Amino acid sequence: MGTTFANLVLDENGKSYPQVEMTVSQLNFRKSRLESKNSLGVWKAGMPGTIAFAAGQSIRPFKVISVFKIAVVVVSVNIDSDTKFKNLTLDDVLS
Fold first, then answer.
1. What is the C-alpha separation between 92 and 95, in angstroms, rounded?
2. What does the pLDDT read at residue 35?
3. pLDDT digits (tens, 9 = 90+) for 22-48
């Protein structure tokens, strides 16, 4: 089992990070069973983070299957004591 803690690099605001290294592996599954495992390299967290690929390995043959875009809306809501939160929707807040 790997360690569950890491040193922290505390540089300046927005540039602090845990000092960790993670092995990057390609896992191939067939019929819900692990068929093969291939070590691609080592990722080092940092500013910027880097991946040191093993000899002959690259990330080029991989492709994106799904891309998710996430939007966050932050609003201030004044609610009187009779309003119920149970059925409150974004449309209610923005109207």
1. 5
2. 93
3. 888 888 888 889 999 988 899 888 777
- With respect to residue 22, please indicate whether it lies within any of the assigned structural domains: yes
Q: Contact 25/39 with Cβ under 8 angstroms?
A: yes
The count of structural domains within the chain is 1
The string of DSSP codes covering 22-64 is EEEEEEEEETTEEEEEEEEEEEE-STT-EEEEPTT--STT---
Taking residues 7-32, report their average pLDDT: 84
Distance CA 8, CA 16 (A): 7
> In which domain, by residue range, is 77 found?
7-94
Residue 1 in any domain: the answer is no
- How far is C-alpha 20 from the chain's CA centre? 15
Mean pLDDT of the chain: 77
